[in-house]
Amino acid sequence: MITKPKGTIDITGSDSLLWEYVNSVVSTMMSAYNYEFIRTPIFEASELFHRTVGETSDIVRKETYDFKDKGDRNLTLRPEGTAGVVRSYLENKLYAQPDIKKYYYNGTMYRYERPQTGRLREFTQFGVEVLGSNDPIIDAEVISLQYKILESLHISNLQVNINSLGDEESRIKYKEALVKYLEPHLDKLCDDCKERFKTNPLRILDCKIDEDSDILKNAPKTIDYLTESAKKRFDTVLRYLDLLEVDYEVNPKIVRGLDYYDHTVFEIVSLDNDDTRQSVLGGGGRYNKLIKELGGPDSYGIGFACGIDRIIAMLKEIDLYKSIQREIDCYVMYVSEEEKLHAIDIVQSLRLNGVVTETNSLNKNLKAEFNEADRLNAKLLIILNNEDLKMGLVNVKDNHTKEEVKVDISEIVDYIVSNL
Ligand code: AMP
């Protein structure tokens, strides 16, 4: 038997119901905040991720799915969403329009990681990218949108861990201080961190192996090295978050794994989940330099990404969702071929009027049809029989109260719609 590739999942049964539910909440909230859906390719030129995510990042060094196509082009399955959205923004010269652009996406990402709880090789993220504004109101909007989506899904005890990396000047000062601090401790850090020290020391703070060591705990903090204006900007973001009723904590450990961030960086966790492999539900940050680095004009960007697989894992722990099951509005029963012809017509009319309807497609007898209707949690049953049909009538049974009525066939759709 052929099995699914390592690190991938099938989404079926009650998981798929939760999946549909999460996606509908996401798209409703995105519309309310006026974000436009954007779809970019699942694979892009490899160079895009090398230039955006960064040559020195774990993602590009170890985790990308790279391949050559038949035209000898180097392509990569996207490991994250920002690079593709920014590429599209530049390629379509959308920066030439005066407005800011507010996009949201929802799609699969690919990272060749060691599969474990909360870590897949194919996973799904929804996220946003706002391009063209540096106003702190946008930092606060993006963070609160992520927070409010998770809150609407009834995930409790949410907390945003937030930090600022500051502007170019702040980052240079901070990097100097960090290098000076880390140098004497290098031999106590993992091999990857020794390498990061040469290529991108900030990334050491992100290390999953050394994260609990005192060396990292006592490292200098970015917020102590912010310039006056970067500090003022960060304080403004926090003030707006207070107004928006977002629970946050300034956490100097948050520096984010990707090369392109500056100013505001954040992660969102549920404190109810003590499994740290799963508790981070999403994160993001501002990336003002990225657009220029990719050959665009001086502009601004900020975004977040949230992992749907981890959200589903959390929802399954919440009582509200534990008994979630699919249900249908109406099940149409028949036995003879003549009744079947009426069933075909009625089922189609109901479905086109938005009534979730199912019928017998396995040549079942009446008893088996009742069982099937129960299994599907049908609210109403339409039971067709030749005698009633000859008089232009059909039987409708409420599957909960068990009450039965005869309804004129010409009025059946209206009757069902108004009795659901
Ligand atoms: P990142 O793009 O690494 O900041 O990840 C943002 C969110 O995507 C995380 O908080 C997770 O919820 C989710 N995520 C990242 N990597 C994985 C993975 N390998 N498997 C499942 N979810 C992931």
Quick overview:
By secondary structure, the chain is an alpha+beta fold.
What portion of residues is helical?
A: 25-40%
Strand arrangement across the biggest beta sheet: 1-5-6-11-10-9-7-8
What name does the CATH topology of the largest domain carry? BirA Bifunctional Protein, domain 2
- Total of DSSP H or I helical runs spanning 4+ residues: 17
Beta-strand residue percentage: 15-25%
Measure the end-to-end span: 44 Å
The chain-level mean pLDDT equals: 93
Global geometry: elongated
Name of the CATH superfamily of the largest domain: Bira Bifunctional Protein, Domain 2
The appropriate CATH architecture of the largest domain is 2-Layer Sandwich
Domain module count: 2
| Computed structural class | alpha+beta
Number of strands: 16
Descriptive terms for the model:
single chain, 420 residues, alpha+beta, BirA Bifunctional Protein, domain 2, Rossmann fold, 2 domains, eight-stranded mixed beta sheet, five-stranded mixed beta sheet, binds adenosine monophosphate
Textual characterization of the structure:
With 420 residues, the protein is an alpha+beta fold. It folds into two domains: 13-167 and 227-321, 2-Layer Sandwich (BirA Bifunctional Protein, domain 2), CATH 3.30.930; 328-418, Rossmann fold, CATH 3.40.50.800. Helix content is 39%, strand content 21%. Strand 15 and strand 16 (404-408) form a beta hairpin. The chain is elongated, with a radius of gyration of 27 Å. The structure holds adenosine monophosphate. The site of adenosine monophosphate has 17 residues, from strand 6, strand 10, strand 11 and helix 12.
